[in-house]
Specification:
Largest sheet of chain B: 2 strands, antiparallel
Distance between the termini of chain B: 5 Å
Strand order of the largest sheet of chain B: 1-2
Structural class of chain B: mainly alpha
Number of helices of chain B: 13
Helix content of chain B: over 70%
CATH topology of one domain in chain A: MetI-like fold
Radius of gyration of chain B: 25 Å
Largest interface: A-B, 39 and 46 residues
Radius of gyration of chain A: 23 Å
Oligomer: heterodimer
Strand content of chain B: under 5%
Order of helices and strands of chain B: HHHHEEHHHHHHHHH
Number of helices of chain A: 14
Number of strands of chain A: 2
Strand order of the largest sheet of chain A: 1-2
Distance between the termini of chain A: 21 Å
Chain lengths: 327, 330
C-alpha cells in the first residue's frame, strides 16, 4: 500500500506502520495479509475503474495542495470581485458565453459577484477534501481503537461501548448535526464539522472492527502471544490490528465519499463552511438561485466525480480484498 | 416474546430520554437567549425578564428539562394567572417565530412528509429488489456490470444535485412537470402524482442503489449455500428452488435495513423538501434552523429520534417473525 498516494493512508500509517514488524508466530493470517498487500495493489492496478478513480483523486488532491500556486498563475484569488466580468444591467449575469469563460477567467465567474470560479473550485477542493479526510482519520482512529478494545476485552467495557454505539446509531444524525451546527458559534466551522461528523460516524466502523476482533481473539497466534506473556495492549495493537488492516483501509476509503457528501449537504443547507470561504457544497447551494439563467455556474460534476472515484476505488478494493481472503 | 418486547421498549424509551436530554443540553448551553430574540426591537430589560418568567427560562437547567419532559406526556401551563397558556398533552412548546404550538405545526405538515416518504420507499423497494435480483440472476453478464456501474453512480450523486438537475430538465426546459407543490391526493390524483414524482425519485435513488447492491450480494451468497445445492440435487426446478429456498433468507436482511432506513427518512426528506420547497416537516426544520427557532428544531429532532427508535423495535419484532433462527433467544 506504499504506493497509495492520498492523504488517506497517513492516518493509518501511524497504526499500520507497527503492523509490519508484527511477529505473529503462527501467523498464517498475518502472513497472508502481508503478502496480500502487494497482491492487492497489483490486482487493483489492472482494474481500469479503480485506476481512473485513483487518478482523479490524486488530481484533486494535487489541485487542493497547490491551490495558492494555481491561483497565482490564473491571476485571481477566490475572494476578489471582478465587476468588469459581470453585466450589471442583466442583474449581474456573467459577460460572455458559458458563464463568462475567458482567458482571464478559466471557468467563468460567479454571477452577481464576479468572483473567479476556477479559484473558488480550487480552494473549495481544499476545504472539502481536508474536512472529509480529517473526518475519516478521526472516525478511523476512534472506530478502530474503541472497536478493538470492546472486541478484545469484552465484558463491562464492551457493554458500555456497545450501548454508546447503539445510542449514536439510533440518533437522528443529520437533523442533529444541523441543529448543533446552527446553535454553535460559526467561528471555527471546519473543526466543528469534522468533530460532529466523526462523533456520529465512528460506530459504523467500530461495529465491524469489534466483530472481527472477537473472532481473531480466538485464533492460535493470539493464544501463542498470550502464552508468551504479551500484555493485552500489545496483543491488541501488535497482533490483532495488523490483521484488520485491509478491513480498515476498505472501510475508510468508502467513508470518504460519504463525508464529502455530508459536508457538501451541510454547507448546502447553510450550516457548513462559513462564507466567504468556498466549499463545493456551498457553491452548489449558491448556484441554485441561478441555475435557470446561468447553468454553467453549476459545479456539481467535480463533486460527483470525486465521490464516484472514492466509491469505485473502495468498491474495487473491497472486491479484491474479499477475493484474497477467500470470502 | 412479551419479555423481549418489554426490554426493547424500555431501552427505546431510555434512548429517547437521552436524545431529549442531549438536544436540550445543546440548546440550553449553546444558543443565544431566546427571550431577547422574541422581544424584538423595542425591548426593555423588564420585558425580557417577563418573557423569561413566562417561558420558564429563569429556572435552572434540570427544572426546565423536567418541565419539558413532563409536558410531552402530561401537558403544561406557561405563565400564571389570567395570562396563562394551557399547552395540551403532547406539548413540545411554542414556536418563537409564529407562536404556534410545535405539535400542531408538526401534525399539519406530517401528511406531506409521509406522502414523500411512503412514495419514495415503494419506489426504491421495487427498483432495488428488481435490480438486485436481475443482477444476481445474470451474474457476470453485461447487464450485471451495467447495473453495478449505475448503482455506484446513483450512490455518488448528492440528492440535492439530482433534484436540481431534474427540476432544470423536466420543469424548466421540457415543461413536463410543474414545480412541485403539496397537492392533496383527494383534490386531483393526476396533479398529485405530477407534483410528487420528482421528490419521490430524488429521495429514492440513493436507497434504490444501495438495495440493489444488497439484494444482489445476499442472493448470490445464499445461492452458494449447501442447502440450495441440496435442493438442486433433489431435482427441484430452478424456479421452485428460488421461491422456496433462496429468496426468503436472501431478503431477510433487506427487511431489517428497510425498517431502519424508512424510520430514519425524516433526515433525508429534509434536504429533498428544502430543495423543492415543499412544505413538510423537513423543510419546517430547515427553516427553523435558519431562524434559530429552538422549540421547533427540538420538536423535529425528538420526532425523528422517536421514529428511529420505534422503527428499530418494529424491525426486531418482524425479524423474529420471519427468521426462524433468532426465535430461540426471544
Amino acid at each position: 500500500m506504499t504506493s497509495f498516494p492520498t492523504d488517506l493512508t497517513t492516518a493509518q500509517s501511524v497504526e499500520a506502520g507497527t503492523g509490519d514488524t508484527s511477529e505473529a508466530p503462527a501467523a498464517p493470517a498475518a502472513g497472508a495479509v502481508r503478502a496480500g498487500a502487494g497482491g492487492t495493489w497489483s490486482a487493483l492496478r489492472r482494474d481500469a475503474g479503480a485506476m481512473l478513480g485513483l487518478g482523479y483523486i490524486v488530481l484533486v488532491t494535487l489541485v487542493a495542495v497547490a491551490a495558492p500556486l494555481l491561483t497565482s498563475i490564473s491571476g485571481w484569488t477566490p475572494y476578489a470581485f471582478d465587476q468588469t466580468a459581470i453585466d450589471p444591467d442583466l442583474g449581474g449575469m456573467p459577460i460572455g458565453p458559458w458563464g463568462g469563460v475567458s482567458a482571464e477567467h478559466w471557468f467563468g465567474v460567479e454571477p452577481g459577484s464576479g468572483r473567479d470560479i476556477f479559484a473558488r473550485i480550487v480552494y473549495g477542493a481544499r476545504v472539502s477534501m481536508s474536512i472529509a479526510l480529517s473526518a475519516t482519520a478521526l472516525t478511523t482512529v476512534l472506530g478502530v481503537s474503541l472497536g478493538l478494545v470492546a472486541g478484545y476485552f469484552g465484558g463491562r467495557v464492551d457493554l458500555v461501548i456497545s450501548r454508546v454505539m447503539d445510542f449514536l446509531m439510533a440518533f437522528p444524525a443529520l437533523i442533529f448535526m444541523i441543529a448543533v451546527l446552527s446553535a454553535l458559534p460559526a467561528s471555527n466551522r471546519s473543526t466543528l464539522l469534522v468533530v460532529v461528523i466523526s462523533v456520529f460516524g465512528w460506530p459504523y466502523l467500530a461495529r465491524i472492527v469489534r466483530g472481527q476482533t472477537m473472532s481473531l481473539a480466538q485464533r492460535e497466534f493470539v493464544e501463542a502471544a498470550r502464552a508468551a506473556g504479551a500484555s493485552g495492549t500489545r496483543i491488541v495493537f501488535r497482533e490483532i490490528l495488523p490483521n484488520l488492516r485491509s478491513t480498515i483501509i476498505v472501510m475508510s476509503t468508502l467513508a470518504v465519499p460519504g463525508y464529502i457528501g455530508t459536508e457538501a449537504g451541510l454547507s448546502f443547507l447553510g450550516v457548513g463552511v462559513v462564507p466567504p470561504a468556498p466549499s463545493w457544497g456551498q457553491m452548489i447551494a449558491a448556484s441554485v438561485k441561478w441555475y435557470a439563467v446561468d447553468p454553467a455556474y453549476f459545479v456539481f460534476p467535480g463533486v460527483l466525480l470525486l465521490v464516484l472515484s472514492f466509491t469505485v476505488l473502495g468498491d474495487r478494493l473491497r472486491a479484491v480484498v474479499d477475493a484474497q481472503e477467500g470470502r | 416474546m412479551p419479555r423481549f418486547l418489554l426490554t426493547r421498549v424500555t431501552s427505546g424509551v431510555g434512548v429517547l430520554l437521552l436524545v431529549c436530554l442531549f438536544t436540550f443540553l445543546v440548546f440550553f448551553a449553546l444558543s443565544p437567549d431566546p427571550a431577547v430574540q422574541i422581544c424584538g426591537k423595542n425591548c426593555t430589560p423588564e420585558v425580557i425578564d417577563q418573557i423569561r418568567g413566562n417561558l420558564g427560562l429563569d429556572q435552572p437547567f434540570w427544572a426546565q428539562f423536567f418541565h419539558f419532559a413532563v409536558g410531552i406526556f402530561a401537558g403544561r401551563t406557561y405563565g400564571a394567572g389570567a395570562g396563562a397558556i394551557e399547552c395540551a398533552a403532547p406539548c413540545l412548546g411554542y414556536s418563537f417565530q409564529s407562536s404556534q404550538a410545535v405539535w400542531d405545526m408538526i401534525v399539519q405538515r406530517l401528511p406531506v412528509s409521509a406522502t414523500i416518504a411512503v412514495g419514495a420507499a415503494v419506489l426504491w423497494l421495487l427498483a432495488g429488489l428488481a435490480g438486485g435480483l436481475l443482477s444476481a440472476v445474470k451474474e457476470g453478464t453485461f447487464l450485471d456490470r451495467f447495473t453495478t456501474g449505475l448503482t455506484l453512480t446513483s450512490m455518488s450523486i448528492p440528492n440535492y444535485v439530482l433534484a436540481l438537475v431534474l427540476q432544470y430538465v423536466l420543469v424548466v426546459k421540457l415543461q413536463w412537470l410543474p414545480f412541485p407543490q403539496a397537492v392533496a391526493f383527494a383534490d386531483d390524483p393526476g396533479r398529485w402524482f405530477a407534483n410528487f414524482v420528482m421528490p419521490w425519485i430524488v429521495l429514492a435513488v440513493g436507497y434504490a442503489a444501495a438495495y440493489t447492491r444488497l439484494t444482489r450480494a445476499n442472493v448470490l451468497d445464499v445461492l452458494h449455500e449447501n442447502y440450495v445445492r441440496t435442493a438442486y440435487a433433489k431435482g427441484l426446478p430452478q424456479a421452485l428452488v428460488w421461491r422456496r429456498h433462496a429468496l426468503r433468507p436472501a431478503l431477510t436482511p433487506v427487511v431489517t435495513i428497510f425498517g431502519m432506513d424508512f424510520a430514519g427518512l425524516l433526515g433525508g426528506a429534509l434536504i429533498t423538501e428544502t430543495v423543492f420547497g415543499i412544505n413538510g416537516v423537513g423543510k419546517m426544520a430547515a427553516d427553523s434552523i435558519a431562524r434559530n427557532d429552538q422549540p421547533v428544531i427540538m420538536g423535529v429532532t425528538l420526532l425523528a429520534g422517536f421514529l428511529v427508535v420505534v422503527g428499530n423495535i418494529v424491525v426486531d419484532v418482524v425479524y423474529t417473525a420471519i427468521d426462524p433462527r433468532v426465535r430461540v433467544n426471544a
